[in-house]
Amino acid sequence: MLMEKPQHYHNTMNILGINIHYEVYEKDSSKPTMVLVHGFLSSTFCYRRIIPLLENEFRIIAIDLPPFGKTEKSTQFVYSYRNMAKVVIELLEKLQVKDAVLVGHSMGGQVSLYAAKENPELFKKSVLLCSSGYMKRSHPSLIFGSYVPYFYLFIKHWLSSQGVRKNLCNVVHDWSLIDQEMMDGYLEPFYDDKIFMALSRMIRDREGDLSQEDLKKIETPSLLIWGDEDKIVPVHIGERLSKDLPNSSFVSFKKTGHLVPEERPEHVTERILDFCLA
User: Fold this and answer.
1) CA dihedral over 33, 38, 42, 46, signed as positive or negative
2) Helical H runs in the chain?
3) pLDDT, tens digit, 9 for 90 and up, residues 97-138
4) Mean pLDDT of 194-211
5) Most exposed among 37, 161, 235, 265, judged by the fewest C-beta atoms under 10 Å?
């Protein structure tokens, strides 16, 4: 007797030498595939409110980028955007995914742009949620500091001093949305000290965002969704990205901050469905 494949399952796959955690939501395997890529200091948890709204129309694969979420926190991995994009591409190739819709939030948006540039035939459309853009490499003094033994303790102290609630207040416009479940979900990956060691390496590995010239070469149809009150990646960055990406459209929501999948799940889903299923 054949066992039915579960509609939702977690798995790991070794890619570029480290174990990558991913989640699959599959009510109907014949549906098109949507890939969800989270942002900095986040995980697949950030998509918890839109996955239930999208899984009737898509087979969803949500990935924990290294070193975040449940993915291995290696100190040997090179934490460049190019390598993170390779993780996304190789995972999808091994899962035999084609013509995927790529959704990236914040830093995950920049990783998605790298992936679309590297392997455009793999993705039929992309959705950028408050994507980072035009950021340069870290300052040389910070890169130098990352080589100092126990520099990771400085990163841990700095993040701890901010506190999870304060960090969430920076990314969410309506603070009433911040509850214990949200705080616990974003805090959980940081109980492992290895993440701070990996972040120390990330400071020197991150090569900066794609240039205007590179963006203009990305022809994947793209939808850019923003929050008007975004303090992390201001709305003017989204408007500029939309101008530089040749086949893109832009929409923003009032009274909304950086964490649009959490703050406006229904509105974000509606825009995604209109864009992808048209």
Assistant:
1) negative
2) 51-54, 81-94, 107-118, 140-145, 151-162, 164-171, 180-187, 194-205, 212-215, 235-244, 260-263, 265-277
3) 999 999 999 999 999 999 999 999 999 999 999 999 999 988
4) 93
5) 161
Token pair 């850019």 in the structure block, residue: 224
β-sheet with 123-129: strand ranges across? 8-15, 18-25, 59-63, 33-37, 100-105, 123-129, 222-227, 248-253
- Catalytically active residues, by annotation: 106, 258
Which amino acid type is present at position 135?
M
Q: Kind of pairing, strands 59-63 and 18-25?
A: antiparallel
Give the tokens for residue 162: 């901010």
Q: Which domains does the chain have, with CATH numbers?
A: 8-277 (3.40.50.1820)
Residues in the chain: 278
| φ/ψ of residue 206, rounded to 5 | -65, 120
**Token digits of residue 15:** 């890619």
**DSSP structural state of residue 99:** S
Alpha-carbon dihedral sign for residues 115, 118, 119, 123: positive
Q: Identify residue 18 by its one-letter amino acid code.
A: I
